[in-house]
Amino acid sequence: MEEEKNYKENLHFGARKVIFQNAHDLRRAETPAEKIMWSYLRNRQLKGRKFRRQHAFNKYILDFYCHECWLAVELDGSIHDEKMNRQYDDMRTEELNSSGIKVLRFRNEDVIKNIHEVLERIGAYL
């Protein structure tokens, strides 16, 4: 019972209600790359690991998250090339790492054009 409570508390790491709502909204407006990625990650298709999409964690929303491995998979479009966005992504990754979460980042184009290579890299971490 205590183990399940700790699992659930650590699952979202204190995310507030507004973060859950934003995550819900993002699940309804997935990008083409997210749609492709989810088709390969859902239902424990990758090495038997459970992934969640648009997962609320603390003050962030993780594109894809495997709680069993504390792994976040982030998909980045061209907006992430802008300096301010790169700095924010770096700070966010640092914070997630300090919470024990490993972050793997992939370009949307890589997911669309080379999904099997992307899945190999994720699988290598798992």
- Principal-axes shape call: globular
SSE arrangement, N to C: HHHEEEHEHH
| Name of the CATH architecture | 3-Layer(aba) Sandwich
Average pLDDT confidence is: 86
Tell me the total number of β-strands. Answer: 4
Cα(first) to Cα(last) distance is: 27 Å
Structural commentary:
The protein is an alpha+beta fold and 126 residues long. It has a single domain, classed as Endonuclease, Chain A, CATH 3.40.960.10. It has helices spanning 2-12, 17-28, 32-41, 83-98, 108-113, 115-125, and strands at 52-57, 60-66, 71-76, 102-107. A 4-stranded mixed sheet has the order 1-2-3-4, sandwiched between helices. A hairpin with a 2-residue loop joins strand 1 (52-57) and strand 2 (60-66). It is globular and about 35 Å long. The model has no long low-confidence stretch (mean pLDDT 86).
Question: What attributes characterize this protein structure?
Answer:
126 residues; alpha+beta; Endonuclease, Chain A; four-stranded mixed beta sheet; globular
Which helices and strands, and how do they pair?
Layout lengths: L1 H11 L4 H12 L3 H10 L10 E6 L2 E7 L4 E6 L6 H16 L3 E6 H6 L1 H11 L1
Parallel strand pairs: 3-4
Antiparallel strand pairs: 1-2, 2-3
Give a quick rundown of the structure.
The protein has 126 residues and is of the alpha+beta class. The chain has helices spanning 2-12, 17-28, 32-41, 83-98, 108-113, 115-125, and strands spanning 52-57, 60-66, 71-76, 102-107.
